Amino acid sequence: MQRKLGLFLFVSLLAGLNLGLTACKSTLVSSEPSQVARDTKVDSNIFGGRFPLLQTVTDDSSAQFNILLPKGSSYRFSVKTGKGQDLAVSLLQSVSRPHSDQTIDRLKVKGLNPKETYQLLVHDENGTLLDEREFSALDTHSNSLTFAFSSCQLDDPPFLATQAAIYAKLSHSKPDLIILGGDTIYVDTFAIFPPGGPKPTEADIWTRYVSTWSKLSLYRLKRLIPTLATWDDHDFGSNDAAADFPYKNEGTAAFQAFFQGQEIPGVHEHGPGVATSYDMAGQRFIFMDNRSFRIRQGSMERYAHWGESQEQWLLEKLNASSKPTWIVEGNQFFGLHHAKGSFQRDHPENFRKFMDSLQAARSPVALLSGDLHFTEVQAISFTPEAPPTSYEFTFSPWHSRPAKSSLYDTQNSRRLAKVNKPNFGLFKTLVRDQTLSLKVEAYGPEQDEAYFVLDALEISK
User: Fold this and answer.
1) What ranges in 283-401 are assigned the alpha helix state H?
2) Closest to 155 (Cα-Cα) out of 433, 448, 398
3) Pairing between strand 325-329 and 365-369?
4) Is residue 363 domain-resident?
């Protein structure tokens, strides 16, 4: 069987409609769009953590955390249950650099129950409480999952004044999971490295990771949310950088220290480069590394985009079972309708061959991508000129410069919806009989109702 779209969506696309946001409102938006809670004021009920902190790899019985701390002090970590019992916290690794006064401690706690709420406590060596965060485990055995997704988190001064509002909206939406789709760190931001001036050094990569974590409200949430991430060029270290980037190893080490965690058999696996795979809620998320093995734009090499070993690792997973799979990467996949970089434009031969492989794979597939600085949802087919059988969801930015009109206003016959403001997608998913059903809503920091709602979407073989 082919992958299934909602009937009304399928008929509209076959009729040749170019469904932009206006058309989307009349044909695809629910009559009663759901809303994130209205009270998204930035207050101490949402933020307030002393140290930048991220809950990372989490399953139904364990959680991992990466916390940024000043060097030279001793800290004690503990977890307290709702009944006041203490759970042991393991220090997996401390990662630092000689030129920095900050270190990343990577922590893990076991023995959790996804139905309970816990407190992660940080004390100094004298027993003084320094930080306290609330968190839960993740029910990986459920057949439903709500996750939030977007990309591009620029920390330049114009965006620091407004970025907290989108994370307040995110917190109120109560997703089970957050997915960061690349450009989580702008190592080479023009605010520090203007065009024509010096380029970032190897040491600047760690420094920019520390600086961004120290400034963004996402890392100060009182109620933690498990977060998974991939990267793109700016968190790799330089605009449009590829495998020949001289500081690739340091970029890799920094990203892994801040955003990744320890493997969990059957749930979380590391792949080539910074690629990772997560199985949860009847579905699989595969985060691809689009930088470590990349050949420069225009290459006609068969494996120019991800490298042979990484692409084969992905295809092995797609053919191992019929579990619905999300492929996540920093670049847009289908992108010939604009001049910005995409898998399809930058590496056309690799893209064509990979689409053939997706069409033949056992797993039904949907695509998550970022980078554009505007959001668009496309109905796609992995076979040229065939009716649409899946979707690509490109969400950007969390907070950054909006796309220029020359990019945003391009025509795209696949497009179902678009937004050119700071936003994130809220994906409500359900898996039954290897069919992925989903509802997708786009939210910004200030409006109460969604920018758009796409409902009754289905992906299956």
Assistant:
1) 308-320, 343-346, 348-360
2) 398
3) parallel
4) yes
> Which amino acid is located at 388 in the chain?
P
Is 208 in contact with 189 (CB distance < 8 Å)? Answer: yes
The pLDDT of residue 44 is 67
- The amino acid occupying position 352 is R
How many structural domains does the chain have?
Answer: 2
Evaluate whether residue 280 is within a structural domain. Answer: yes
Say if residue 410 is in the same domain as residue 361.
Answer: yes
Residue 47 CB neighbour total at 10 angstroms:
18
Query: In angstroms, rounded to a whole number, what is the distance separating the alpha carbons of residues 355 and 268?
Result: 25
d(CA 340, CA 136): 39
Which one of 135, 167, 185 terminates a domain? 135
For the chain, give the number of residues.
461
pLDDT of residue 448: 85
Same domain, 159 and 81: no
Q: Are residues 380 and 298 in the same domain?
A: yes
| Domain with 417 in it | 7-38+139-459
Question: Does 221 lie in the same domain as 110?
Answer: no
Q: How far apart, in whole angstroms, are the C-alpha atoms of residue 44 and residue 225?
A: 17
413 and 318 inside one domain? yes
Q: Residue 227: give its domain's CATH number.
A: 3.60.21.70
pTM (whole model) above 0.70:
yes
Phi, psi values for residue 101, rounded to 5°: -95, 15
Show the low-confidence residues of the chain (pLDDT under 50): 1-41
Strand bridging mode 177-181 / 144-150: parallel
- pLDDT for 413 equals 94
Q: Which residue, among 371, 332, 334, has the nearest Cα to 235 in the 3D structure?
A: 371
Amino acid at 216: L
Q: pLDDT tens-digit profile of 347-384?
A: 999 999 999 999 999 999 999 999 999 999 999 999 99
